Amino acid sequence: MAPRHEIAHLAHVQLLTPKLEESVRFCTDFLGLRVVGSEGDRVYLHAWDDYQHHTLTLRAHRHAGIARTHLRAASPEALRGRVDAIETTGYGIGWADGEPGFGPTYLFTDPDGHEFGLYYEAEWFQCTEETRPALKNQAAAYPSGGVPARRLDHVNFLGRTPGDNRDFLVDVLGALTTEQIMLDDGSVAAAWTTFTNKSYDLVYTRDNLGLSGRLHHIAFAADSRADILRACDVALDQGVFIETGPHKHAIQQTFFLYVYEPGGNRIELCNPGARLILAPDWHRVDWTEAERAKGQAWGLKTIESFHTHGTPTADDLTRET
Amino acid sequence: MAPRHEIAHLAHVQLLTPKLEESVRFCTDFLGLRVVGSEGDRVYLHAWDDYQHHTLTLRAHRHAGIARTHLRAASPEALRGRVDAIETTGYGIGWADGEPGFGPTYLFTDPDGHEFGLYYEAEWFQCTEETRPALKNQAAAYPSGGVPARRLDHVNFLGRTPGDNRDFLVDVLGALTTEQIMLDDGSVAAAWTTFTNKSYDLVYTRDNLGLSGRLHHIAFAADSRADILRACDVALDQGVFIETGPHKHAIQQTFFLYVYEPGGNRIELCNPGARLILAPDWHRVDWTEAERAKGQAWGLKTIESFHTHGTPTADDLTRET
Amino acid sequence: MAPRHEIAHLAHVQLLTPKLEESVRFCTDFLGLRVVGSEGDRVYLHAWDDYQHHTLTLRAHRHAGIARTHLRAASPEALRGRVDAIETTGYGIGWADGEPGFGPTYLFTDPDGHEFGLYYEAEWFQCTEETRPALKNQAAAYPSGGVPARRLDHVNFLGRTPGDNRDFLVDVLGALTTEQIMLDDGSVAAAWTTFTNKSYDLVYTRDNLGLSGRLHHIAFAADSRADILRACDVALDQGVFIETGPHKHAIQQTFFLYVYEPGGNRIELCNPGARLILAPDWHRVDWTEAERAKGQAWGLKTIESFHTHGTPTADDLTRET
Amino acid sequence: MAPRHEIAHLAHVQLLTPKLEESVRFCTDFLGLRVVGSEGDRVYLHAWDDYQHHTLTLRAHRHAGIARTHLRAASPEALRGRVDAIETTGYGIGWADGEPGFGPTYLFTDPDGHEFGLYYEAEWFQCTEETRPALKNQAAAYPSGGVPARRLDHVNFLGRTPGDNRDFLVDVLGALTTEQIMLDDGSVAAAWTTFTNKSYDLVYTRDNLGLSGRLHHIAFAADSRADILRACDVALDQGVFIETGPHKHAIQQTFFLYVYEPGGNRIELCNPGARLILAPDWHRVDWTEAERAKGQAWGLKTIESFHTHGTPTADDLTRET
Predict the structure, then answer these.
(1) Cis peptide before D280 (omega within 30 of 0)
(2) Which chains touch D (3 or more CB pairs under 8 A)?
(3) What is the model's pTM?
(4) PROSITE patterns from the xrefs (chains A, B, C, D) (predicted)?
């Protein structure tokens, strides 16, 4: 088991979209992200309180999906230590230049084939005159429109064997498993893991289609449940498709809203209230099949598409090492 | 005393501003109003759930202030009845064409000299393709940005003798006084009156500078206290000047935020929760000097500018009869 | 068509419950009502900002249901006028003593058989030392626990022919129909009517079981959507059954939560934001079958029990004239 | 500089009160804490989502104040390491039995004389039938009444030299300084430090009275800004004294409310939205005197008592080693 705190946090996602222009508009008008650059088929977007250069990369592609998830190491030493550990697993790919503003990035996959990048060096977000906040302890001005999403919150992958992928995160990267679904046959149907005091950063859910490398959703943090309700009103009149919610999850107790961005990727807005995992000896919560059958916290039944809809990894892209 | 329910509601205000362009930008970017037309030195703005053609007219002028407040009569008969009543008081001015989308409008002043327009005929708001809401029981699409203000809520005038003006509203227009401040000398320092189930529509506060015809503020309805808190964040990074709040008034218990629009007029955002005046025999609440000295509901002391800052009426404009 | 504004507001409901003690506990612990008296098999409960003596009567009975709905007339003259009008319809029953604190009450039914009481004289709520609010423009102290419900908001009846009952309210009592569901065959499946600036006070929905006199739900006003979310958390840990919600209605745009009180009656918590009906020439909104098939505002599908569960009127009680 | 992550989190405070019974009632009725035990002059209180045995100890004393602050080490090894480090500073006191449910506790003071206890072994909160939550990933049932406070959030000490105390936390315990006030003369007027991803856990503010060992306030986490507004309404009618707020701090951007508990200690309710410190290379924010003169985030001026009111440490108690 790797030591905790070597991964500082989930930092960035690169999403694929077949409708780049519309997906960008969704990110700016609905999520309240700001375009901070573009290059070729990629557009870089920043959430208003992300200290880093950008939060999300949208990349034009023939299908929706997730290309890569970036984690930031806690220090140069932690980066070296984790790369060594990854290399012993056979899942390492090699070093790449990294996203704009991100330093040298070590690429690897989880056992299910989702690609990750791990880096330490990071350029901090530089405001323009227009995006300079009134308070200097904030990354950028609070957007008037959209949700607005404060920062990336978590990524929920689909995978063949959530238990194996959870083990990879725990053993190699030092994640903590906070909650999981344990089926009656003893297998793990889903696992929530964290690198921080947030109750989860990376989640694996069993892929009901038996596929590898798919994305269930990425989530952005909203500042309050009230903001998520307001986002529903905005979604309604912007024509954003709401899949399910708003409601509160039983697992992790997150207040949620699930929408699809125009490219087809599922996006969650989430807020956990003041919930944090502070206990160093956290007692992992295992949910049984019977408990899961009760639906969400306040009784909402999980809808069918939630069990099937996912977007694939970019397995046909030439890997950029 | 005039019968109640002849005035349907406060409908529209025409504000003066020496900085038309900036005031318009404040209305669109901060309040979340939409420009629905302009003509000469006037810009017409619509709040997203106002059923009428427009909610606010901004008019370029050499000083900030209020030109006119419009009330909508409950019926053609009510209009005729109220005009007759006004004419007996000597405060009548005469008929005018009215704002765009408003039918024939009878102009008059209150005893303090604030100009009013009373009308019945009204064009309903027509959506464009872009402003059409998803739900047809809503006037226009919910704006993604700004507060957004749902509708005009109330007007608070400054005046030499609030009691006389209150009497005018009650006796001639059928208003109900719901709360007032009664000084130890028996004079009325402020009076809150309503034509509806809202706890106030028009307010008179004694002008501490002894002037006539000034405006203390106009107020827009926000859907929740949470929206007003969010508006504070937006104001901070848009450079909107917050005079006082957010806090809750002791009188009327309205949750409030006071800002100045760039022209200098004070604008309130307000939310009363689910408070309504339903009792047909409402027991008017009289606040004493001692009670007022306690500050606002949760203890905030009223700041000095709140007692002095006001913007004048357009007394030098040629009246447009 | 009766003149508007003769009925001041929906004032009170008498509910039947087979589990009086548990229903009372639900009202105090979950809704945040206060017991203000009891007599025989009846318990009187007060919502914290109701100006009247009490808001709800719970009455022990062998089944759940609604015994009577009280409306307050706008004046003694309005009371006489409406009683005269009712008597011409054949639906009048006669005068009764009324609830404690309510003056002489004229009993009648709607065409579907739901019993109503109409009165004018009303005792205002008298605080005890313990329930005295800090601010004197409030009926009673704000409860620390439960929702808390500010006041009764509306009653939604089930009935054989919503259109006939709507006509009765409009023609005899002066209600305004603000929205309705118009089926493809031209019949009215549901109608929302109001006596106030609230967008609805009394609602009729077609009874899918073909029964008469049943109740769909009564609703209490919560001050914000945030309070309703909080109520969900309270419900979860108090074991209150949540039927559906929280979500936002397409019709009337009310944010809602539906629960069952222990006796079996459906109770709604509702909040419309700052929405009011101010137009004296309101354009009634007719929803088609196709539009209704879209579910609630943000996409929630209406659950089955919502179409069938109702609680009957007390048709076997000896009427107390 | 000590390694980070050896202190898991701020865990518990022991407060002194001259009015034990009233202070307990404040904690249960207003804060929504639960009494989970008592012994002699001490009452143990639990916040609903605290995983530990109790969150706060109230101790009868002749004056208000703070007796001790507990920190939980991240592991047995971390506990040993920190105790060794503390002992080299001369601020160590020795081992004690600890609070009920807390294992062996090492006592020490900061340079200013505030007493701390550091421990690792911890009993998890055991629910009774009555406090068992519906969801098993929650420590105890959500209270219907009061704020309710989810957990202890931070402690703000007054001290002669905030810089020295900050250094102690950083050098000996591995805290990170996230923000501070740097006066024009180069001295540190206040410093915010954290052991977690929360933006602060322990704060030192210069004591304007030049005293040592005093407490400015302890803070409890509320789940939303809406909950804090609601708490204002509850405070008003429970007679809880509100010192200042609700408003948003410029420093750390926390939404806040300050009240005094009946014993005289200042208590804060706080909510930071979704703000977290995730950057491993966080750029400390230093506020200048000029920046501080601007007041709070939305313009509220800091009131006088905020600069002076504090409650002392129990320096006359026999230390219990």
Answers:
(1) no
(2) A, B, C
(3) 0.97
(4) VOC (PS51819)
Per-residue DSSP letters for D228-287?
A: HHHHHHHHHHHTPEEEEEEEE-SSTT-EEEEEE-TTS-EEEEEE-TT-----TT---EEE
C232 CB near a chain D CB, below 8 Å? no
C298–A247: do the CB atoms touch at under 8 Å? no
**Could D237 and C146 be called an inter-chain contact, meaning their C-beta atoms sit closer than 8 Å?**
no
The A residues from 34 to 93 touching D (CB cutoff 8 Å) are 49, 51-52, 72-75
Interface A-B: count of C-beta contacts within 8 A: 47
Q: How crowded is residue A246: how many other Cβ atoms within 10 Å of its Cβ?
A: 24
**Closest-CA distance of chain B to residue D255, Å:** 10
Residues of chain B neighbouring C136 (CB-CB closer than 8 A): 285, 291
Tens-place pLDDT, residues B31-73: 999 999 999 999 999 999 999 999 999 999 999 999 999 999 9
Q: Do B285 and C223 touch (CB under 8 A)?
A: no
Interface pTM, i.e. ipTM: 0.96
Comparing CB atoms, the residue among A198, A251, A274 nearest residue D223 is A274
pLDDT at D1: 81
Best CATH choice for the domain B7-127+149-308 from the list 3.40.718.10, 3.40.190.10, 3.10.180.10, 3.40.50.410: 3.10.180.10
Query: D154-212: per-residue pLDDT in tens?
Result: 999 999 999 999 999 999 999 999 999 999 999 999 999 999 999 999 999 999 999 99
Topology given in CATH for the domain delimited by D7-124+148-308 = 2,3-Dihydroxybiphenyl 1,2-Dioxygenase; domain 1 (3.10.180)
Report chain A's mean pLDDT, rounded to a whole number: 96
Q: Is A146 on the interface with B (CB under 8 A)?
A: yes
Does A209 touch chain B if contact means CB atoms closer than 8 Å?
A: no
For residue C290, give every residue at least 6 positions away whose Cβ sits within 8 Å of its Cβ, in sequence order, or none: none
Pairwise CB contact (< 8 Å): C223 & B273: yes
Taking only the tens place, the pLDDT of each residue in B111-170 is: 999 999 999 999 999 999 999 999 999 999 999 999 999 999 999 999 999 999 999 999
Domain boundaries, chain B: 7-127+149-308
Is D26 strand, coil or helix?
Answer: helix
Sign of CA dihedral B288, B294, B300, B305: positive
CA distance C181 to chain B (A): 12
Tokens standing for residue C239 = 């074991």
Please give the CATH architecture assigned to the domain spanning A7-308: Roll (3.10)
pLDDT of res. A314: 76
- Touching C: A residues 259-318, CB under 8 Å: 297-299
- Write down which chains contact chain B via at least 3 CB pairs under 8 A: A, C, D
Where do the DSSP E strands lie in chain A?
7-17, 34-39, 42-46, 56-60, 65-73, 92-96, 105-109, 115-119, 151-159, 176-182, 188-194, 202-206, 215-221, 241-248, 255-260, 266-271, 285-287
Instruction: Encode pLDDT of A166-180 as tens digits.
Output: 999 999 999 999 999
